[in-house]
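Saturday, quiet lab. Running sequence design on the structure tokens for the scaffold JK sent over.
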């Protein structure tokens, strides 16, 4: 995972107001939300439905991972304890015609995807149960669970879901967007391991979708389609037998390489430091690890941290990118998937370098993240019924460009349209026919429109939300 950092340091300034595409700061849809909140307070009680001043309200309103999503003020926040509460919430929101948002783990960087101003926020921080059923050999997960929580909680039983690569990421959002995992080369995407999904539709009806029942089309749509098709209140997923904490069956860790790059553009020149951090794991012995990754190990490194690991330790190798003490930041993403030929790999790198220079005054570092998608992963996915985005055969890398803007030299109002214009996401190269990874693409890239099953997705959406309530009243993936 290369990242670029300027050699000089910059100051950090807090307390800026962001006005961004997708963020509802300027919208006025107060009356329906007030109606919904009043009704919900009566139905569920003030411990589950809180407005400003409530014990949990402020922590939730400002608790999203990304700065873009920390400034909105919901009319009320619903803290459901079970599926029945979500049914009541969604039914009331629907009949009140209120704007709303849903937050699972809260890790989205997309403005407005997990927050709302003058609307109803459904916060799943009180639905964090998970359990392993040894008879069914499956794991049940509620939507507020973080990947690290389920990994830690089930390690004594030697199982884990196909989950995220960073502990602080929520399982729900990860899996609904497809879900790349350290287990993916052998186990597919996270959503490939869905068995059953309890889903509250936009009109408040609760259904259970599986691959074989009457809601099989909804089941497929939720395998990568994101938040547009309903609210999943419980996941049943395959249990992957990864071993306990005592089972050091993996070998690997990180290798760091330092490169000094001299950059000269028409508007800027200088020396930048590029650090390539490669994260490598192999489910096998040290000898097998060294044989498989011999080319990487031959690169001169400034630091290595390799050794035997349990799967739970693998999950802790990558620390959350929002590091303590690093200051407030707003993260902009750009995603790409491409075949390495025809110079596209080099073009992708040069685009990232150009973007980094373009934001030299606002970002202390930027990231160009490469995740290989192997043919074995595609084969496993197809064997499990495929997804809404199933790619064609042929392995390829998935790229994401991360630009954490630490607000070092912004004016008092950050106008995100200017940021998007300067990022010029459309310039990121992509191979036609390959789907973008929803979780690591900017919303303006319209990832759903790149899916192989896009036309079918639109048909399924019309079936389950015929009034287009979700699209009209909730910020989320574009294209439906």
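Result came back. Writing it out in full:
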């Amino acid at each position: 995972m290369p990242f670029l950092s300027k050699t000089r340091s910059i100051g950090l300034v807090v307390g800026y107001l962001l006005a961004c595409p997708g963020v509802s700061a300027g919208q006025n849809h107060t009356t329906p939300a007030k109606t919904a909140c009043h009704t919900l307070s009566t139905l569920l009680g003030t411990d589950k439905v809180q407005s400003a001043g409530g014990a949990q309200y402020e922590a939730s309103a400002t608790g999203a991972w990304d700065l873009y999503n920390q400034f909105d003020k919901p009319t009320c926040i619903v803290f459901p304890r079970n599926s029945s509460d979500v049914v009541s919430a969604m039914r009331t929101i629907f009949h009140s015609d209120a704007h709303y948002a849903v937050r699972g783990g809260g890790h989205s960087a997309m403005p407005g995807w997990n927050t709302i101003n003058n609307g109803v926020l459904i916060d799943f921080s009180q639905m964090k149960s998970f359990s392993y059923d040894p008879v069914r050999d499956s794991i049940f997960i509620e939507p507020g669970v973080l990947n690290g929580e389920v990994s830690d909680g089930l390690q004594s039983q030697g199982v884990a879901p196909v989950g995220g690569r960073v502990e602080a990421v929520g399982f729900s959002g990860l899996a609904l967007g497809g879900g790349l995992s350290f287990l993916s080369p052998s186990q597919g995407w996270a959503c490939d391991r869905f068995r059953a999904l309890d889903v509250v539709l936009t009109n408040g009806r609760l259904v259970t979708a599986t691959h074989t029942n009457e809601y099989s089309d909804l089941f497929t749509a939720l395998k990568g389609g994101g938040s547009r098709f309903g609210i999943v209140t419980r996941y049943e997923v395959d249990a992957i037998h990864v071993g306990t904490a005592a089972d050091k069956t993996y070998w690997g860790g990180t290798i760091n390489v330092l490169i000094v790059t001299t950059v000269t553009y028409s508007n800027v020149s200088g020396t930048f430091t590029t650090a390539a951090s490669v994260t490598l794991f192999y489910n096998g012995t040290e000898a097998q690890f060294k044989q498989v990754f011999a080319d990487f190990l031959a690169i001169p490194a400034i630091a290595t941290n390799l050794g035997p690991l349990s799967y739970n330790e693998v999950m802790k190798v990558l620390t959350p990118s929002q590091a303590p003490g690093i200051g407030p930041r707003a993260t902009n993403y750009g995603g790409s998937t491409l075949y390495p030929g025809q110079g596209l790999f080099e073009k992708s790198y040069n685009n990232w370098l150009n973007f980094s220079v373009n934001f030299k005054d606002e970002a202390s570092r930027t990231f160009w993240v490469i995740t290989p998608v192997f043919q074995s992963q595609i084969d496993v996915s197809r064997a499990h019924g495929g997804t809404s985005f199933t790619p064609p055969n042929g392995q390829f890398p998935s790229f994401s460009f991360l630009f954490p803007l630490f607000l070092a030299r912004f004016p008092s109002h950050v106008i995100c349209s200017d940021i998007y214009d300067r990022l010029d996401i459309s310039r990121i190269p992509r191979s036609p026919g390959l789907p973008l990874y929803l979780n690591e693409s900017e919303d303006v890239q319209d990832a759903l429109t790149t899916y192989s099953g896009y036309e079918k997705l639109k048909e399924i959406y019309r079936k389950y939300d015929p009034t287009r309530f979700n699209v009209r009243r909730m910020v989320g993936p574009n294209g439906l």
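Notes for JK: The two ends are 32 Å apart (CA to CA). The CA atoms of residues 130 and 153 lie 8 Å apart. Ask whether to fix the surface positions before the next round.
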